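Report of the visiting student (M.T.), summer placement. My assignment was to run the structure pipeline on a short list of targets and document each run. The first record concerns Trm112p-domain-containing protein.
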Amino acid sequence: MKLLTLNFLTCARKACKTSAAAFPLHPRDAELEVVETELNLPFISNILPRLDWEAMRTLAAELGLPTLPETAPEPAALFSSPTADEADAQEPNQLARDLHGLLVETTIQQGSLVCANCEHQYAVKEGIANFLLPSHLV
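After the run finished, the structure tokens were exported:
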């Protein structure tokens, strides 16, 4: 499960639907794996405005990953030369590479995701999270 995915998930229990503590889910006993992929700068610059930046900062801190800046960078800040006209012609800077590594290349292979509101744990096995609830929690 890519770390980027956690920025879009919340607890599945009905009791947690109205609670702000149900997002983000917090990793516990997580085994991380880095799967290197080619840098996709257009994807990173397009997903950046859609991220809940505080949730990403919290996630990175909980997993012991490099600290993210306090505020989300602007997509133009991902390029070494922000004056170029074409995004394809621009060279990505270190921040773009770091975000790509965190959001796209880092995955949770084993562990669990925990709701801060109800403490329900969702198991993650072989990189796949199980969000099926037992019948008494639905």
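The chain has one domain: 3-137. The chain has a mean pLDDT of 88. I thank the supervising group for their guidance throughout the placement.
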